[in-house]
Structure formats: C-alpha cells, structure tokens
C-alpha cells in the first residue's frame, strides 16, 4: 500500500540523510575519526580565519549550546582550535588545525565522488538540473494561507 506523495521538505531531508550517510561511511572506511552530523556541519560553515561559536550556531541553524558541544568535541579530536579574536579581547574564534584541514579536504573529495555516484545513478542531466535548481535564489520564505 502506498501513502501520499512526499512533499519537497521530506525529499530534501531524505537526500540530506543519503549524503550524510555516504560521507560518514566513506570517512569511516578511510580510517578517519567518526564525527557527528552536527560536527560535520561545523566544517561546512567555518571561515578560514575563524568563526565565533554564536555565528556557527546561526549559520547551521542550531542552538549555541549544541554548536558549543560540537565544537568542543572537534577540539578534543584535534580538528579545531579556539583562538583569541583579534577584533575583540572578550571573544574567541574557532578555526581548523592542520589535521582538521586535512580531514576537511578529504571529506570534500569524498563528497565530490559521492555526487558523481549520484549523477551516475540518476543521470548527469538530472544531477546538473538539480544543482542548478537548488542554486537559484528563492527569495524570502513566503507566508501563505492554507485554504
């Protein structure tokens, strides 16, 4: 028995999980330290010169406490470090260590290969169209009234 068609947010979530699962399995198979999805998300939004934990939380869309936990787990693994913010004596920034940069570059290479697997499975034209559609500006989220 089939249910109602999945809406786009459900499909996006399943696609995100597919990529997350593939990346985590690939990194584990390569012998890298396991990281959580939240920890992996930190790397995706981290500036080269460093980023505050509050800004990381905002970019990822998680609480500051969750970002703090993810960051400190990565610091404990030797992948990130916390340094003084040169613009503010009361603040600190989080940035990658040399090991964190190596692991992040390996993850980026794995993601490119995973994207190629997806293109092989759904077709290069479909993968290109998907990337193009998701790269278009969507504007501000609308507020609609359901009938």
UniProtKB/TrEMBL annotation:
<dbReference type="InterPro" id="IPR000835">
    <property type="entry name" value="HTH_MarR-typ"/>
</dbReference>
<dbReference type="GO" id="GO:0006950">
    <property type="term" value="P:response to stress"/>
</dbReference>
<feature type="domain" description="HTH marR-type">
    <location>
        <begin position="28"/>
        <end position="127"/>
    </location>
</feature>
<protein>
    <recommendedName>
        <fullName>HTH marR-type domain-containing protein</fullName>
    </recommendedName>
</protein>
<dbReference type="Pfam" id="PF12802">
    <property type="entry name" value="MarR_2"/>
</dbReference>
<dbReference type="GO" id="GO:0003700">
    <property type="term" value="F:DNA-binding transcription factor activity"/>
</dbReference>
<dbReference type="InterPro" id="IPR036390">
    <property type="entry name" value="WH_DNA-bd_sf"/>
</dbReference>
<dbReference type="InterPro" id="IPR039422">
    <property type="entry name" value="MarR/SlyA-like"/>
</dbReference>
<dbReference type="InterPro" id="IPR036388">
    <property type="entry name" value="WH-like_DNA-bd_sf"/>
</dbReference>
């Amino acid at each position: 028995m089939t249910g109602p068609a999945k809406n786009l947010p459900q499909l996006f979530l399943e696609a995100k999980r597919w990529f997350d699962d593939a990346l985590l399995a690939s990194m584990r198979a390569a012998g890298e330290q396991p990281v959580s999805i939240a920890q992996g998300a930190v790397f995706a939004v981290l500036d080269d010169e460093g980023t505050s934990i509050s800004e990381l939380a905002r970019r990822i869309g998680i609480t500051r406490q969750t970002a703090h936990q993810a960051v400190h787990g990565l610091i404990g693994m030797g992948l990130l470090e916390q340094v003084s913010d040169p613009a503010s004596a009361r603040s600190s920034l989080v940035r990658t260590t040399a090991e964190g940069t190596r692991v992040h570059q390996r993850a980026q290479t794995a993601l490119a290969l995973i994207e190629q697997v997806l293109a092989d499975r759904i077709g290069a034209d479909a993968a290109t169209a998907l990337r193009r559609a998701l790269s278009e500006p969507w504007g501000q989220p609308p507020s609609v009234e359901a009938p």
